[in-house]
Amino acid sequence: MQLHTREWGTGDRTALLVHGIMSDSRTWRRVGPALAERGYRVIAVDLRGHGRSPRGEYTPRHFADDLVDTLPAGADVVIGHSLGGLTLSLAVQRLRPSRAIYSDPAWASPDPEQPLDPEVFASGKNVTRDHIAQLNPRWDPEDVDVEVATLADWDADTSYFLDGRPLTGFVPDRPFVPSLVQLADPSFLVGAEDVTRLRASGFEVRTVTGAGHTIHRDDFEGFMKSLDGWI
Length: 231
Known about the structure:
7 strands, 9 helices, hydrolase, hydrolase activity, alpha/beta
């Protein structure tokens, strides 16, 4: 499947951006231009079922295969947020970027014994603008508007890849390229034991103090600062 993409910049270096569930490439409205100013050609995808990309079967493997089919291999850096981080971890060996950044990746459930109810995610399709603003008091109003627009273009059936099971088994055993794991404070998807294991296997792990799950919208400056040495 060829995914819809959005681009910023024409630099000699290449950066790839992969969004989380319920979102699309518009979520990177500040990150894309910031990387372009640093000399990157930036390419952001809409995952299948999101934005202007086609619909289809929804599984982590399909999401990962789409990245490989759509994006150039050998990019200088790839950033994946949430579901995008999970997807990137399944595609990174084939994409072969110089560096990979996993922003609060969806590698595990908050409670590994508690199944995730896909209906909770699917019900987000109809959330109001006021409710989005209340849930995310640190977001810029434009980010709230973007969330409303991306939800309108999102296929809620993507939620059902969860299939009512806990999200387990996705924490990588080792980094295939130099890799940073960037965490919210606290992260509900990467726990303390996982952090210890990730560091021991060669990942660098950084926490953006006070930031929620969507770090790049909750604290843009903190998000960018956390990438020092990686972009």
